[in-house]
Batch of 4 targets.
Target 1
Amino acid sequence: MNAIADRLKYIREKLNLTQGELALKLNISQQAYSRYERGLRRPSHKVLVALSEIFGLDVNQFYRLEVKDMKSEIGRAHV
């Protein structure tokens, strides 16, 4: 898995969202979102911006934070 994929899965699970629920919020298929989490596809910048809004994170945090450092940031999520 890649770092962004790890982060996406970690945040989604912490927020108790299914892949399908998150895909619906992004207006994409569950299969497309699953590919992001499995590292088979990299989300576009547009998708990362949408995810950052859903999660209440700065888009740059997908690139620079370690999963362990995201714990305090996720508490501010706007789901």
Target 2
Amino acid sequence: MRHPCLAVPVFPWSFVFWLFTAAAFFLAFQAFDFPLPYSAALVLQGILMIGIAAPSAPSAAGAFEAATVIALTLYGIDN
């Protein structure tokens, strides 16, 4: 990148995107009566990003689901 300062506006927008996505996960927690805090939605999102980024089978079959189960298990939610 010739001008790294052009990337600076990306960081606040990325932060806002993460907050809104975590809010969607939190609303899903509420819809399914999972007694989890908003911070659990942020943890879920972080583990999902790591799980999706890791090499997996073609079409990433099961990577999202496995990462979700791992994250929710940390908070005592069984599959």
Target 3
Amino acid sequence: MFERLKELVEEVTENSGITEGMTMESNLITDVALDSLQFINLILALEDEYEFEIDFEELDIDEIATVGKLIEYMEGNKK
């Protein structure tokens, strides 16, 4: 799942080198430098691919801001 997440980050940013050095502890906004639109597009792509849904009205973005937290959330909220 980590490798696929990296691929999707590169797709939504259209930057093939952006994930170099990305780890499970990397913050997608501050460390990887996704802007808000890229972050939302990443979430939408992940929701489609892994069949889960994020309710942004109930979830604090900080809860899914790091790679590890996002993967943990995805694994725990599959349909």
Target 4
Amino acid sequence: MHVIINVVIKMNKELSKLIELRKNKGYSVKKMADLLNISKKFYWQIEKGQRNLSYSMATKISMVLNMKPDKIFYEDFSN
């Protein structure tokens, strides 16, 4: 149970980081969704942790933000 909670906390931290990076770029949820060719609702659900994030989508998001996926989503898991 403790391991599952730690993973959830780390995922919430990564999702908050995603929101922060999007806002730092000056992008709205709608703009990100348009750049990713997905619906605004779908993207919003990713940011809120209501959708599972595939590696493919993580890669697309990282390309829009000009970062490596590991720097956005996976950095804390390797520490």
